[in-house]
Amino acid sequence: MSVITLSTVEAAYDTVGAYNQDAINGFSDQILDAMLDLSQPATATHILDAMAGDGNLTVRLYDYCQRRGIALPRVDVLELSHVQCAFARQRLQDTPARVIWGNIVTLEDYEQSTRLPGQAFDRVLLKSGTHEIPLAHQSALYANIWHMLAPGGMFVNLGFVFDDEIERDQFREITRVKDRLAGMQSAAEQRHFLTREEFYSRLHEAGFVDVRCGRHVQYAIHTQVAIQQYFPPEAWDRINAEIQAEQARALVLRRRGRIHFQGESSIMLCPGEITLARRPR
Hints:
alpha/beta, Rossmann fold, disordered N terminus
């Protein structure tokens, strides 16, 4: 695997700018609180919020701890997009969180020109980000998370988990249409949505044990909500028509009730889960 240097860093979400990931995915407060419940922050001292975007999960984590009277853990926020790092620093400026512009696939901290530390965290949290990593680098992703966890530490992942490859492939094609229209060519080319077999096998190969589903979740992606987050108003009707045309071609997803057309918009219901995996002591 080639090392990505400062001169070649390209992050799709530099192009997007500000957006609301949870609104796009249809994540309820109950789903996000369930992720934090399973993370057990009361017993954590140092947490890595990986592929963290604008820091929204860390904001929620601190609010969760304050509402429950839990001492605030140390949190490092790791993100590849320089633009999203700037948003994260703004959102977290009144918290003790540290924002790191770096790459979880290569373990590079770009600003410090160092490698991210090993065995430094007792939790690694990752929310709806694994599908941004190309298939060829998925094994490195989980090996690096294992490397950064202290012995006995836990990886908590909220993400897509498909049990059927046809459903996965049709959903990927729909997503690629949106990415190309948004100018996110690298995302269109590199995204890989995991099947359960792919995900679990790579976790085991990385050395994780006690791999299990903490909670099944459902993505509820409203096309109009996603379009309004990614595109200017003058493009909404055109983009909506192009995405719905691709959705209409996804016959298996439609037959299985994964896509519903509602007036001028549509909704996609996709399988996901909160997965727990532990680095052995």
